[in-house]
Design a protein that fits this description.
The chain is an alpha/beta fold. The chain has an eight-stranded mixed sheet with strand order 12-11-10-13-14-15-16-17, sandwiched between helices. Strands 1-2-3-4-6-9 form a six-stranded mixed sheet, sandwiched between helices. The chain has three domains: about 5-290, Alpha-Beta Complex (2-enoyl-CoA Hydratase, Chain A, domain 1), CATH 3.90.226; about 325-505, NAD(P)-binding Rossmann-like Domain (Rossmann fold, 3-Layer(aba) Sandwich); about 630-735, N-(1-d-carboxylethyl)-l-norvaline Dehydrogenase, domain 2 (Orthogonal Bundle), CATH 1.10.1040.50. Residues about 730-735 have low confidence and may be disordered. Helix 11 (about 260-270) packs antiparallel against helix 12, helix 21 packs across helix 25 (about 630-650) and helix 28 packs across helix 29 (about 710-720). The protein contains 31 helices and 19 strands.
Length: about 725
């Protein structure tokens, strides 16, 4: 065997150690299933073996299933549909996709006790393996996480996870765990009875074996006569308080956009009314069904495959040697600059935090101290972690301290004059190998680079707020940015454990440009007379995290006004919509409503109460539409289509050159309906022809901003998709 070792001690207890060659973590693939199946049969049939302990030789137990296995299953199904028909293909997919579930059930019922010795993180199918064991012991480790996060990529646990979780804890708790996909720390997992014991790492295997020696049972609780479901049966008072409420919460949170979430409710509800073997069959049928859904296919591709490729350096120039950054400089100790300093220090990088005077620089570090102290008070961080992080940050007003940095990032006000002054001060003190990056979200990188002595070392690194929580970083290439600067920027983003996308220079780049269309559409709907609550609710129903008006408040209404004025000054009156100009001028200039930052924007922000839409918005609407006559589907289509269309334009203009970056960036950067897989996946799922027809319909009714670009029209005529025409392995030729 290549993935496992098998040793039996004098007591007849087998120790199975999982150690996949050539991988940093164990994952479940075809070979793993075949080998583990053989080991289960060996334990079951050899009389000398009294029980088995399974553990890992790596730092983690198992990262879950290799999702390329599921991708292969989906492609196999598509091929079988063409060759053998839908029914035969569905039957084959069902049988193949349930093999892991059947293996775990065989382990659970083999007649010999199995113990999972969990030496590190166990997720997805790896955690489902531990749940199938009769006892679970975990090694003390604050970094260990246990959970079933499949919902986050459009799937649900399909190897018995839904049924075992629902039998280990009350239905309400199990549904919450399955639907949120949380990764649990050990103490919480033990409190939820998902593991049985936590022991020192040195005692892990001994503790597991001792349980078997002490007469550990070879039957799961649900296979013992008289088993009672935690929380009671489905059709009981407790059950009726759980499932109707869970269904309502599911619809409130997902608007029925996520088939996998609906399936979780279904399989738990049905499974708890059946014996375990039938319940697992129900789970497997739903799993095969969800695996065929376009939502699962798109989410797996974008949120797993593409993200993994980008995180591993898919866009990094191969000929440039990797760089290990030791020290960086951050100019600007405000909210954004302090956030950049924080994530850099967390990665062990020394940070020189520069501001206009020592007091301002000190305030930036002090704000971080308070922020992390608040987390300590909530049990989310430790004093040692805070002190170690802050020790890496040196606040100063001396630009000369930047001389020894590998990278300098400016995060000052979005003002060309201020940025120009910073560029001049920085290049006066740094050497000829230091890369300079601007955190601008709108100003063209090439024009800023023109003020730098070596534009090849000038690049854009656009962070999103709040920096510590937002996982995306947008790297912007100027016309003269060199490969060394790009490589260093990508090495830096990888070091701070964020996901990079690389885009070419343009006004607003990619993310700011596209999210601006979403916000603008909300403004124009308001101007048309659509009630503000309807705009916001339909934005969320379409799949966006917040409505366009709420989002504008977060990024600042006065910033939207500044961008609109700058766009008009640079490109002329035809480049902006006069209705949006009228609305923003009224909000900012006449009403002083700047957004959340001053407590009043499209929403009001009471001191000790939830935000609420500003009642005065109705007074700004010249006409008011009857909400009962508004086409709800059309509103949702407008909000998504305008973003997808602008993404296609970015692709046509070569601002974007990689479909993976378009989709990953749209979800991580501005929250584009995750169930869709991203803006370009949304178009591909619909089909270019249907999307162009939708755009033309909206163009006829609402104006030329919905006019399909030439690339889309051509793709519609040829019946092409973005992922076929611009496949990542052909990206450079396509671009």
């Amino acid at each position: 065997m290549s993935n496992f070792t098998f040793d039996t001690d004098a007591d007849g207890i087998a120790l199975i150690t999982w150690d996949m060659p050539g991988r940093s973590m164990n994952v479940i693939d075809v070979d793993t299933i075949v080998e583990l199946s053989a080991l289960v049969e060996r334990v079951a049939t050899e009389a000398a073996i009294k029980g088995a302990v399974i553990t890992s030789a790596k730092e983690t137990f198992c990262a879950g299933a290799d999702l390329t296995l599921l991708d292969t299953l989906a492609r196999t199904f598509a091929g079988l549909v063409k060759s053998q028909g839908e029914e035969a293909a569905a039957a084959k997919l069902f049988e193949e996709s349930r093999k892991l579930s059947q293996l775990y059930r065989r382990l659970e019922t083999c007649g010999k006790p199995w113990v999972a010795a969990i030496n590190g993180t166990a997720l997805g199918g790896g955690f489902e393996l531990t749940l199938a064991c009769h006892h679970r012991v975990a090694a003390e480790n604050p970094k260990t996480r246990l959970g079933l996060p499949e919902i986050k990529i459009g799937l649900f646990p399909g190897a018995g996870g839904t049924q075992r979780i629902a039998r280990l804890m009350p239905p309400a708790d199990s549904l919450q765990l399955l639907l949120k996909g949380d990764q649990l720390k050990l103490d919480r997992a033990k409190g939820m009875k998902l593991i049985d014991a936590i022991v020192p790492a040195a005692d892990l295997v001994k503790a597991a074996k001792d349980w078997i020696k002490a007469g550990g049972k070879a039957k799961a609780p649900w296979d013992i006569d008289g088993f009672k479901w935690p929380g009671g049966p489905v059709y009981s008072k407790a059950g009726m308080m759980t499932f109707p409420a869970a269904n309502a919460i599911y619809r409130r949170e997902t608007y029925d956009n996520y088939p996998a979430a609906r399936a979780i409710l279904q399989v738990v509800y049905e499974g708890l009314q059946l014996p375990m073997d039938q319940a697992l069959r129900v789970e497997s049928r739903w799993f095969a069904h969800i695996l065929r859904s376009p939502e699962a296919a798109a989410m797996i591709r974008t949120l797993f495959v593409s993200m993994q490729e980008l995180n591993k350096g898919a866009r990094r120039p191969a000929e440039v040697a990797p760089a290990k950054l030791k020290k960086i400089g951050v100019i600007g100790a405000g909210f954004m600059g302090a956030g950049i300093a924080q994530v850099s220090a967390q990665a062990g990088i020394e940070v020189v935090l520069v501001d206009r005077d020592q007091d301002s620089a000190d305030k930036g570090k002090a704000a971080l101290h308070k922020q992390i102290s608040d987390r300590i008070a909530k049990g989310r961080a430790t004093t040692a972690e805070r002190d170690a992080l802050l020790a890496h940050i040196t606040p100063t007003a001396d630009y000369g301290a930047l001389a020894s940095c590998d990278l300098v990032i400016e995060a000052v006000f979005e003002d060309r004059k201020v940025k120009s002054e910073v560029i001049a001060k920085v290049q006066a003190v740094i050497g000829g190998n230091v890369v300079f990056a601007s955190n601008t979200s709108t100003l063209p990188i090439s024009s800023l680079a023109a003020e730098f002595k070596d534009p090849a070392r000038f690049i854009g690194i656009h962070f999103f707020s709040p920096v510590d929580r937002m996982m995306l970083v947008e790297i912007i290439l100027g016309k003269n940015t060199g490969d060394k600067a790009l490589s260093l920027a990508l090495d830096y983003v990888r070091a701070i454990r964020k996901t990079p996308i690389v885009v070419n220079d343009s006004r607003g780049f990619y993310t700011s440009r596209v999210v601006g269309t979403y916000i603008r559409e909300g403004h124009l709907m308001l101007a048309e007379g659509v009630p503000a609550p309807m705009i916001e609710n339909l934005g969320r129903m379409a799949g966006m995290p917040v409505g366009p008006l709420s989002l504008n408040d977060e990024v600042a209404v006065d910033l939207a006004w500044k961008i609109l004025k700058a766009t008009e000054a640079d490109l002329g009156a035809a480049a902006i919509d006069p209705r949006q100009k009228t609305l923003l001028e009224e909000m900012v200039e006449k009403r002083g409503r700047y957004g959340r930052k001053n407590g009043k924007g499209f929403y009001d922000y009471p001191a000790n109460a939830p935000k609420k839409l500003w009642p005065g918005l109705a007074d700004l609407q010249p006409t008011k539409l009857d909400p009962d006559r508004i086409d709800i589907a059309e509103i949702k289509q407008r909000l998504l289509a305008i973003q997808a269309l602008e993404t296609a334009r970015c692709f046509e203009e070569k601002v974007l050159t990689d479909v993976r970056e378009a989709d990953v960036g749209s979800i991580l950067g501005f929250g584009f309906a995750p169930y869709s897989g991203g803006t370009l996946s949304w178009i591909d799922t619909m089909g270019a022809k249907r999307f162009v027809e939708l755009c033309r319909k909206l163009e006829a009714k609402f104006g030329t901003r919905f006019a399909p670009c030439k690339l889309l029209v051509e793709m519609a005529e040829r019946n092409e998709t973005f992922y076929r025409r611009f496949a990542p392995d052909r990206r450079r030729e396509a671009a």
